[in-house]
Write a structure and sequence with these properties.
By secondary structure, the chain is α+β, with helices and mostly antiparallel strands. It has helices at about 10-15, 25-35, 75, 80-90, 105-120, 150-155, 160-180, 180-185, 205-220, 230-235, 275-285, 290-295, 300-315, 320-335; strands at about 45-50, 60, 65, 95, 125-130, 135-145, 185-190, 195, 245-250, 255-260. The strands form two sheets. Strands 1, 2, 3, 4, 5 and 6 form a six-stranded antiparallel β-sheet that branches. A four-stranded antiparallel β-sheet has the order 8-7-10-9. The protein starts with 9 loop residues before the first helix and ends with a helix. Residues about 1-5 have low confidence and may be disordered.
Length: about 325
């Protein structure tokens, strides 16, 4: 009998944006919150990864929580076929972890994992894979004693949470490279009052979009109930495809929200505008139009228009052909 998973994803979402923590503490905080949301899980594990080159899969050190220890299977993951790596870790998705078995020629490693699952009474796993268009992301794996009804599991909003996790992973990488000040473009109070704005954030439409986004985030935080769909819908990963809003605390404990520039990384396909490249990157990572709109903080109709324009410019008439042509064009740009 499939177990139902209890909701409560807002604490997981908030933990996702505690970006100043070291990676192990950041992942551990997310897992602690996720375990509270999924009390039937036996164990949870999380790791960052780089799948920008599927033939050279690079998972980071795993962090685990739970009633049973979770082994580090990085060596096993590195033996998996490139196409499986691309379709599994190169796509933002919530899926059964062992849906396709354990595809590897390293039979000793595969048998070791099977033995671990059997001996610890693990009947199912669910992976929340959060990846951006650049092929870098974070995976959460939840291990359950019995088969999990994936539709019931996803209902609270795990796919939307994956979009946030991909966005937060990218921002952590950017902050490590540039520091907080270089990408800070606005400071707002929790009520939505704009205290400071720089660069693109000084334009009136941007200011209003940021104010509205702050109010939506605070509304989401105040709606702590058993139904996460509404709050997760109003709290978007990006504002107008450019800014991620995160908390900061000043001396005395005063809280502000700061707008960090966190636009998606895009490939150099000169025939496409930056916004067209942003939506095609996410389409290439497996995002449907509604999720692209959610992740970028724009409307679904705008996503459709941008994909149509990109397809026309690249001479294609299907989504699959657009993604394939886009990847081919970006590869030629890198080789030029």
């Amino acid at each position: 009998m499939a177990r139902k998973v209890r909701t409560g994803l807002l604490p997981v979402l908030e933990a996702t944006y505690l970006l100043e923590r070291p990676e192990a503490d950041w992942l551990g905080g997310i897992l602690d919150a996720a375990w509270s949301a999924c009390p039937s899980a036996l164990a949870l594990t999380a790791y960052t990864f780089d799948v920008s080159d599927p033939t050279c899969f690079r998972p980071g050190p795993p962090v685990s929580r739970g009633e049973i220890p979770v082994p580090d299977i990085s060596a096993l993951m590195r033996t998996m076929p490139a196409e499986y790596v691309r379709s599994t870790w190169g796509t933002l998705q919530v899926e059964h972890t062992f849906k396709y078995g354990i595809p590897t020629e390293a039979t000793d490693l595969a048998e070791g994992l099977k033995g671990y699952l059997l001996s610890n009474g693990i009947g199912d796993g669910v992976t929340i894979n959060a990846v951006d268009g650049a092929g870098r992301g974070t995976s959460l794996v939840l291990l359950f004693p019995e088969p999990t009804n994936l539709r019931t599991f996803m209902r609270p909003g795990w796919t939307r949470l994956a979009a946030h996790l991909a966005t937060a992973t990218r921002l952590r990488r950017l902050l490590a490279a540039r520091g907080q000040e270089n990408g800070l473009e606005a400071v707002l109070t929790p009520s939505g009052k704009l205290m400071d704005a720089r660069g693109p954030a000084t334009a009136n439409p941007a200011r209003e979009a940021l104010k509205t986004a702050v109010r939506q985030i605070e509304k989401a935080r105040s709606a702590r109930s058993g139904q996460d769909g509404g709050p997760l819908e109003t709290w978007r990963p990006l504002v107008t495809a450019r800014w991620t809003l995160v908390d900061t605390f000043q001396l005395g404990g005063t809280r502000y929200l700061i707008a960090q520039e966190n636009a998606p990384e895009v490939r150099d396909v000169q025939r496409l505008s930056r916004r067209e490249r942003e939506v095609v990157e996410l389409a290439a990572a497996g995002h449907p139009n509604k999720l692209i709109a959610y992740a970028l903080g724009i409307s679904a109709s705008t996503v459709g228009v941008l994909l149509h324009r990109a397809a026309a410019k690249l001479g294609t008439n299907t989504r699959a052909a657009l993604v394939a042509r886009y990847r081919a064009a970006s590869t030629r740009s890198l080789e030029a």
